[in-house]
User: What shape does this take?
Amino acid sequence: MKLREALDTSLENIAAHKLRSALTMLGIVFGVGAVIAMLSIGAGAERQALETISRLGLHNVVVRGKQLKDDDLREIRAKSLGVSLRDAEAIRDAVPGVELVAPKAEIEPWAVLAAGGSTDAQVFGVSARHSWLVNLELAEGRFLDALDVHDHAQVAVIGDAVRRDLFGYAPALGEHLKINDVWLEVIGVLRSAGGEVDAIQGVQLGSTSTAIYLPVSTALRKFDKDPLDAPLSEIIVRLDSPEDGRETAAVIDSLLGHLHAGAEDYELVVPEALLAESRRTQQMFNIVMGCIAGISLLVGGIGIMNIMLASVLERTREIGIRRAVGARQKDIRFQFIVESFALSAIGGLAGILMGLAIAGTVAASAGWPTEVKIWSILLATSVALGVGLSSGIYPAVRASRLDPIESLRYE
Assistant: This one.
C-alpha cells in the first residue's frame, strides 16, 4: 500500500465519522494550543522583564533610601544622614570594579505648571550620565550635560505624558514650566516607552513618561526638602562587569553599614539578580504549564488509541477482505498507523490556530505582551504527532494479527 492511498483512505474514514473524529482530536487540540499559548506568553513576559530591568541597568547596583515612618526616621537621623553625596564619594573611592557613581534626588512637587496646563509628575534631580545609565531615549532635544550640573542650570527634560499635559502637541523645546517656585526651561522630551511596568519583583521603578529630570545640583540647591528626608533618593553605581553585581553589592553594603552607623535606612537593588529571579520564576511557570499541556496531550493520545481500537472492531470484516485479496500484515499496520497520524496531524493544525488565537486574545484584551516562537510551534506539533503515532501502533498491530478467516465471518 502506498502512502497516498493510505492517506486518502484515512481521510475518508475520518470524514465518515466527523463528530467522533473531532471529539477524539480535542485532547491534541487543547494540548498543542496550550503549549503554544503558554510559551508565547512566557516569551513575552521574559522580554518585558528584560526591558523593565534594563531601566535599572544590568551593569548597575542601585542604593536606595528606605521608606520609613516619621518616628523611626527621627530616631535614625540622630546617627545617620541617610543616602547622601558622602556615600556616593565613598563608593567611588573605596569599592573596586566601580566604573561610575551617579546620585539621584527626588523632589516632592506640590505644583507643576506651564502656560498650557498642569500635571502630576515625578521630579528627579539626576547626573549628566543618567540617560546612559538607565537607557533613556530622547524624542527631541537633548539630555542634561555636565555644564548644566556644574552651573546649577534651571533646565529640564520631560516625559511624553508630561509634555502632553503641559503643552498639548505644541512644540515644547524652549518653553518654560514651573515646579513649586522654580522656573525651568525644557531642553528635551523623552521618547514614549509604551507598556511600561512600574514595578518588578517588588521594586518600584516609576514611569519615565510621567517624569521630569533636572540637574541634581539644581535639585539639591534650589528646592526645599523635609529635614527628615535623606539628601538623595538613590545612588546608581555602574560596574565594569555585571557578573560582579552581587559581590560588589556585598562590599557596598558593608561600607554603607559603617558610614550609616549601622542604621538600616537604605537598601540595595541588584538588577542582574532581579533578572535571574525573574527567569527562575518564568521557568517554573513554563514547567507547570508544560506539565498541564503534556497531560492534555496524553489524554488526547489515549483518546486516539481508544478510537482506533474501536475502529479495528468496526472494520474487522474489511480487514478480512483486504487480507483475502492479498494485503499483507504490514499493509494493515501501515493503514492504521497513517490514520492515527492523520488524526493527530489535523488536531495539531487546529491546536496551532487555537494557540495563536489565545496568544493574540491575551495580548489584545489583557495588555500582556506575547511573542510567538517558531520553535514552540514545531515543538508542540512534533510532540502531538509523536503521541498520535505511538497511540496508533498497538491498534495497528492488533488489526494486522486478526485471522483472515475469522475476520470474514465477523458480523
Q: What stands out?
A: The CA atoms of residues 10 and 339 lie 5 Å apart. DSSP finds 14 helices and 14 strands in the chain. The chain has two domains: 3-52+277-409, 57-276.
